[in-house]
Amino acid sequence: MCIRFSSVSSKKNERWHSDGIVYPKLTWLAGELLAKLARWSVESRQSAFKSTLSLISIVKYSKVYQELKEKYKDMVKVWPEVTNPEKFVYEDVAIAAYLLVLWEDERTERGVTAKQSFVDLGCGNGLLVHVLSSEGHPGRGIDIRRRKIWDMYGPQTRLEEDAITPNDSTLFPDVDWLIGNHSDELTPWIPVIAARSSYNCRFFVLPCCFFDFVGRYHRRQSEKTQYRGYLDFITEVGATCGFHVEEDCLRIPSTKRVCLIGKSRTYPPSGEASMDEQRTQYIHRRRGCPGSPPSRAPAPPAPGAAASRVDRPDGCPGAHAAPDVPAEEPWLPGFRPREKTERVRNCATLPRDVVDQVVLQVADLLLGGKQLNPRSSPSGRLKAWNRGESLSLSEVADKLDKETLRRLKRECGGLQTLLRNSHQVFEVLNGSVHIRDWREEKHQEGKHPEAKCTLLSGAFKTRLCWFFTHHPDGCALPSHCCPFAHGPEELRPPRKHRPCELPPPCEGPVERQAPAPQGCVVSETFPCSSPVPSMGTEPCT
User: Fold this and answer.
1) Are 302 and 308 in contact (CB under 8 A)?
2) 323 or 235, which is more confident?
3) Coil, strand, or helix at residue 490?
4) Three-state DSSP class for 391?
5) 3-state secondary structure of 131
6) Mind listing the pLDDT tens digit for each residue in 92-142?
7) DSSP 248
8) What backbone torsions phi and psi does residue 285 show, to the nearest 5 degrees?
9) Coil, strand, or helix at residue 160?
10) Which of 108, 130, 158, 439 is 20 to 30 A away from residue 20, measured at CA?
11) How many of the other CB atoms lie within 10 Å of CB of 445?
12) What is the rounded CA–CA span in Å between residue 170 and residue 164?
């Protein structure tokens, strides 16, 4: 490989100032970057993960995926949830395609024609259940919270609203496969539930959030990433439960795309009793609880594939050591399924006056204590606009009273969350906060233009401009350029699907425009040459 450095230096950009950030220094390009590029182009580094789709035929998968994508693409148009439809629809379609190919290969290996049954634990929106059921696999999904989209699937898609607590009443002896697709706190339990449901029950898990048997998972080896360590933990759980655990990497739009599969057992059916004792000891060791006393022999397995746990001596407090313990008793004390109603931690539950007061306090700090106006300045044209200073979040927190900080932490996750959500007023970057200057906001052309157009046209002038009302110098933009209303008379009713008709762009320097509305502060040299400034992530209401 031959790289000529002379071409880099000879065609040097006229604006190249070699600041080491935007324009790298030529010495670094020649002495470090080119050497690394040459080394990277020839070296072979082994990945910590398996190659994509290593357990199935890529040709089969591609064919099935394209068929499913075409069949279920209209789900994107009617998606009623607040989540991104393109991500979730195509991700679940890809997972369904993988399982369909995997299960077809399994039927061929076993010489059977009946399609596998399944239960999806923590099924969420239920789309994976809907696709698999529509493709002929009998199954159902269970989730603690019902979703709006469930009503759209039809009666052939069985979805149940229920909490799953790992115990003897949550076994599935007649099911072929248990699925855990981003199943959170149930993820480590799914291999256990599959193993105890029946000898023929298998599992498929796609881990995402890191949970242990009780509470959050904490990695124990710093040389591994947390994700790699968690995958190894779930693999260890499956192996301890007696599964041959296989790993594969899915082709889905997600950073967490490694799945773990338990298709076969490492022991014969006659070894179920001793294997279940091993599972119990392992689960309790995760809590620092000693295993079963060696003087007590394990109980014989119950007749049938699904052995009962009520007569299994665990040797730990709260375990099912007596036959009269109810089946609903959890296998490990302390497990708690997630709450049915998710706690909102984004300031939505805070009183509006509390949020407004904190915003005013922080703005006052950033503006150097300059008095904030209850109304905008009457002057419509000023030479300068006070942008204030930048302060670290810790400096801002030191100026707020402790009770306010505790309330923010308790209700919405902290001061940073509140400031980020007040994005009309503040910009939070790298642990610091400063007043947002809307003159610097750029309209990102070419990046999701239709979505941006909908956002701008739907939310334009539907909210009052905080700067027009509170900033000592008023708003930095003229009324026709500001996406927010300069006074109640400019407010428009919000509409979700307003036709994309943006106001005319500002052309040329502002001082050539018509006089700005009262309270609108304009820089003498600020050219407003783009359409309406981007509103960031301001939601349409």
Assistant:
1) yes
2) 235
3) helix
4) strand
5) helix
6) 999 999 999 999 999 999 999 999 999 999 999 999 999 999 999 999 999
7) E
8) -65, -30
9) strand
10) 439
11) 9
12) 7
Measuring CA to CA, how many Å separate 367 from each of 363, 387, 400?
A: 6, 7, 15
Token reading at 187: 């993820």
Task: List, in sequence order, the alpha helices (H) in 17-80.
Answer: 26-28, 34-42, 58-72
Q: 177 pairs with which residues across the strands?
A: 118, 202
Q: Is residue 537 classed as helix, strand or coil in its secondary structure?
A: coil
Q: CB count, 10 Å around CB of 324?
A: 7
Count other C-beta atoms under 10 Å from residue 40's C-beta.
9
The residue among 407, 404, 435 whose CA lies nearest residue 419 is 435
Both structure tokens of 512? 């050539």
Mean pLDDT of 331-357: 74
Give the relative orientation of helices 190-197 and 226-240 as an angle to the nearest 10 degrees: 10
Higher pLDDT, residue 201 or 81: 201
Residue 173 corresponds to which tokens in the numbers above?
A: 């002896």
Return the higher-pLDDT residue of 45 and 305: 45
Say what the pLDDT of residue 336 is.
Answer: 78
What pLDDT score was predicted for residue 248?
96
Nearest-angstrom CA–CA distance, 370 and 501: 38
Residues facing 433 on adjacent strands: 391, 428
Q: What is the pLDDT of residue 535?
A: 36
How many residues comprise the chain? 541
Q: Does position 299 have pLDDT exceeding 50, yes or no? A: no
Number of H-type helices and E-type strands within the chain: 15, 10
Residue linked to tokens 């496969």: 177
Q: How confident is the model at residue 498 (pLDDT cuts 50, 70, 90)?
A: very low
Q: Which residue, among 470, 538, 513, has the nearest Cα to 503 in the 3D structure?
A: 513
pLDDT range class, residue 418, cuts 50, 70, 90? confident
Residues in CB range of 223: below 8 A, 6 or more apart: none
> Quick one: tokens of 87?
């991500």
| Cα–Cα distance, 361 to 380 (Å, whole number) | 25
